[in-house]
Amino acid sequence: MLRKNTGLKKLIENQTAFIGPESELSIYDTYQQIEKVPFKADELLFCGMISGKKLIHHNQLKLNSVPQVFIPHESFIIAPQQNIEIDFPDADLQSPTSCLTIEISREKVNRIAEQLNHHQLSSDNCYNWQQQKTLHLHHTTATQKLLERLAKVFSENHQDRSFLIDLGVSELVMRLLRHQHADFLLSHSQQQPDHNGLNAAIDYIENHIEKPIDIDQLGKISCMSRSNLFKVFREKLQMTPCEFQRLIRLNKAKQLLNKGTRVTDVCFRLGFNNPSHFSRLFKGFFGLSPKAFQQNTLHS
């Protein structure tokens, strides 16, 4: 189970927990500012922000480096036995900082990974949870809605609450496994762009991020027909080539905004032709406008 400092007061990380057979779902509410609150988990721990902001310190950060900002639409995945410390810079009685955590057993993760592998068309067992470190991820609007739905079900005394929470946790694990697999494909394409057609296509998109996608050109580079190109992208990445480029662009935009690059410069540098369109896409993906996101992170 999740272990926390028993000396903390109720105003700090006030926990409400639902314990199931293979997972523990908790909601933590903090009502005052505090720094360096310790956390540790025995099992894989998913943390998703509901409201407010946290600053996360963990041992993978460089010495004297600033902590990582943690806001809604973002997740932290903490491997078993990893220690973190948390700051709450904005929490107060009127606007508490709220976070949903789910501690998931290895058995449940492995079972869902086996099910995903069984439904894969390819014979390689590509879905296995391999991370042994703390991960800071952006999650999609769909995942954010899943967390909010879990929090709502959690708070209701519904006769099917246990079943609904188990379904939601299973969906979350599936999303995490698919995210990890997509990250592996991206990393592999950077290291070995000539390994296969998909790697070649991914590498080309990443190195021509500012240009509109030419599907015919991409097919030639990957040695795939148009229909097969779309099929492979959907099978391996669950998105089309154009959707993949949009994802890469938006993640790059986030990096540039974190460095203080002006919003309009980010927009045109990454191939977006219209700042308003860029802002709508960014807000739909990250939950904040580019300007609000930049202010939130740079002022932390």
UniProtKB/TrEMBL annotation:
Keyword DNA-binding on entry: yes
Pfam families according to UniProt: AraC_N, HTH_18
Domain HTH araC/xylS-type: 199-296
Keywords associated with the record: DNA-binding, Transcription, Transcription regulation
InterPro entries according to UniProt: Homeodomain-like_sf, HTH_AraC, Tscrpt_reg_AraC-type_HTH, Tscrpt_reg_HTH_AraC_N
GO molecular function: DNA-binding transcription factor activity; sequence-specific DNA binding
PANTHER family assigned: ARAC-FAMILY TRANSCRIPTIONAL REGULATOR (PTHR43280), HTH-TYPE TRANSCRIPTIONAL ACTIVATOR RHAS (PTHR43280:SF28)
This protein's name: AraC family transcriptional regulator
Organism encoding this protein: Pelagibaculum spongiae
Taxonomic lineage from the root: Bacteria, Pseudomonadati, Pseudomonadota, Gammaproteobacteria, Oceanospirillales
